[in-house]
Design goal:
The protein is of the alpha/beta class. The chain has a single domain, classed as Rossmann fold (3-Layer(aba) Sandwich), CATH 3.40.50.1360. It has eight helices and ten strands. The strands form two sheets. Strands 1-10-9-6-2-3-5 form a seven-stranded parallel beta sheet, with helices on both faces. It has a three-stranded antiparallel beta sheet with strand order 4-8-7. The longest helix has 18 residues. It binds 2-amino-2-deoxy-6-O-phosphono-alpha-D-glucopyranose (GLP). The site of 2-amino-2-deoxy-6-O-phosphono-alpha-D-glucopyranose (GLP) has 14 residues, from helix 5.
């Protein structure tokens, strides 16, 4: 995988927004997979600026969701559907119909998961999939020991992830659902270009294990090593435990510009 070390979160957001811009210029109806959490917000901000300034036309772009809580009432402000509508779809001026995600309030969850995998395939597959990373190395909501070939399915959150995410629920862990639907690791690996952004020291261990550790389901993000075109963008703090940081810096500094991200 390619590792790009950027000075800070803003630079990471701009770099990834540039890659999305290049994709949309060559494929105006690209399917863009988005992640939630705090980390990707600088990407959405940079993308919004491109659209606002008239530098990029995203009017035909389609957006798809990575994961969702199970059991939150429809329209709950912290359901990932609400978050993506609020942070991405609305600000980019896209219609709600351009957006798809798994139905976390479905009565038949396995059927909803299967339907979502099918919908992604029928939409032609994900072009760029933006990913964050959990402190335990999860991508989407694929917690440690997720099958590396898993499809979209229900998962149970670890206590640590529920603690991490309580900040979105008034700091009250009892409001954080136990169950979620997430694209599987196998599903994520079908995206043409997964791009993981990690910022801050709290992610340094997870990043080091993802990039330089063995491929192991106990660090779900390490499955990205199996992808022929995966990019990991990290700020200095998140890169601080990478043994090969100097090599990654030199590689990117001398990268032929025609290669893009
Ligand atoms: C949640 C999401 C992940 C995200 C992670 C990290 O668990 N399901 O997609 O990567 O949070 O969030 P943050 O970027 O806020 O640290």
């Amino acid at each position: 995988m390619e590792v790009v070390i950027v000075p800070d979160a803003k630079a990471g957001g701009e770099l990834i927004a540039d890659a999305i811009g290049a994709l949309v210029n060559r494929k105006p109806d690209a399917l863009l997979g988005v992640a939630t959490g705090s980390t990707p917000l600088p990407i959405y901000h940079a993308l919004r600026e491109k659209v606002r300034s008239g530098a990029l036309d995203v009017s035909r772009v389609r957006i798809c969701q990575l994961d969702e809580y199970v059991g939150l009432p429809a329209g709950h402000p912290e359901s990932y559907r609400s978050v993506v509508l609020r942070e991405v779809v609305g600000p980019l001026g896209l219609p709600e119909e351009s957006f798809m995600g798994p139905d976390g309030s479905a009565e038949d969850i396995p059927a909803a998961c299967e339907a979502y995998d099918k919908a992604l395939a029928e939409a032609g597959g994900v072009d760029i999939q933006i990913l964050g990373i959990g402190t335990d190395g999860h991508i989407g909501f694929n917690e440690p020991c997720s099958s590396l070939s898993s499809r979209t399915r229900i998962k149970t959150l670890t206590e640590q992830t529920r603690i991490d995410n309580a900040r979105f629920f008034d700091g009250d862990i009892s409001q954080v659902p136990y169950h979620v639907i997430t694209q599987g690791i196998g599903t994520i690996l079908e995206a043409r270009h997964p791009i993981l952004l990690a910022t801050g020291e709290g992610k340094a261990d997870a990043v080091a294990q993802t990039v330089e550790g063995p491929i192991a389901s106990v660090v779900p993000a390490s499955a990205l090593q199996l992808h022929p075109h995966a990019t990991v963008v990290v700020d200095k703090a998140a890169a601080s435990k990478l043994k090969l940081a100097d090599y990654f810096r030199a590689t990117y500094a001398t990268k032929p510009s025609w290669q893009g991200l």
